[in-house]
Amino acid sequence: MTTLRTIAVGATVALVAAVAPLGAPAGAHTQALGFTTTGVATGKDYQKIADKDGGGEPSIAAGPGRSLYVSFPSNKGASFYRSFNEGRSFSPGGIADTFSGDTSVNVDSSGAVYESNLDGNLEGDVYKSFDHGKTWPQKGRAETAVADDSSTGNPLKVDRQWVDAYIPPGKTTRHARVYITYHDFGPSQIWVNVSKDGGRTFSAPIDVLATLPQAQADSFCNTIPGGVKVVQSGPHAGRVYVAWLAADVATSLATGCNYTQMDTFHSVWIAWSDDEGQTWEATKVFDGGFGHDASVLFADLTLDRAGNPYLAFGDNLGKQWDMYVSASFNGGKSFNTANHGRPFRIPAGRGTHFFPAIAAGRPGRVDVAFIATPARIDTLPYGKPAPGGGAGDKWYLYVAQGKGLRSADPSWRVKRITPDPIHKGDVCTLGIFCVFPGSNRDLLDFIDATIDPHGRFHVAFTQDTKKHTGIYVANQTSGPRI
Description:
4-stranded antiparallel β-sheet, disordered N terminus, 2 helices, mainly beta, Neuraminidase, single chain, 32 strands
């Protein structure tokens, strides 16, 4: 969500964090998953890739070979770092824009890098690099952009944008299909702008919900966009998926719509297009019902190697906020059919689990990262986390590996990655409305994850304790790969 964040650069050291899961119950398999953290050294046990510098919310993407890219908004603007040794060390790249409210990063199959940025006019820009993020010579422009020369050109303005790209068979990166998705500051519709010339020019904004009556009824005035992904190969190559969370019109209006984010976002949605964004179909992935809130924070979208979509989200379906995963193996028409449509809960033990980030490999296999505290956060009467309710709590980074998601009973391995807390105190999930006494939004709103071409899991996250402050990356170094 919109706001400024932070970072910088440096040397590296490997740390293998062999720490037990957070009170994992029986059934949570704990076979070792080896991770390291890398970056600029300021702590004894860790290293980070950059100073916090007012920022957070790092986005991470893997490119061809051994390359990894991390982007995040900071006081410097759209900060950017890259690694060419699978995350063991990072160096700074170029800064595409000296102002940044949100960023995201992705890579097409040629190795060209795309960075989206929320600019100072509350529009989305898509920058493209042909030299691994050293320079950003190309900025896409929408058909409707006038004075701000943006890639979105949306008169209702833009918040929380995501980007992905696809090169059709026989084409080059100059003809890549590039998609940027976001919601607006008015009725909070889900929008997509499409480029068919490698990100040089973009279409006018396309309203994904315009012809989807049920999705529109659930989503009007309050959505949280969960990303965009394009199928790279197989029978649905070129299909573009977008995901989001939605609530109820009546309660959204009563709580101030997307300006407060105070409603319970109890339904998870996905839509897809096979004609480059011109028309859309949609599926309600899951609905926990009013009083069950999935906005802690984004519902994260990913695709496996065959192009099957998966969503990870947090929800308080029981006595606490847990992590859940839903998967589709029929092109998004239905999810978790073997489990009667119910999402799979990751058995991470007692506590509170926020900020899901997911990556998929072979069909039915996923890696999920999240932050967690052993404490249970208080709940407001209608199902939201109580603002300021996490006072004094210690939060850690966790990963989970799931296999067998085609069945009704997948297996999970869960591991705590950080031996020290990454944050102490409240973790506010109300976005720009984190204004209540005791509310803390220092981590901002998400972490991010990716799988490299060799199947290793990488997680980008923020730390803000006295011992460790900055932008970090954890890299899988051993254990099973998905």
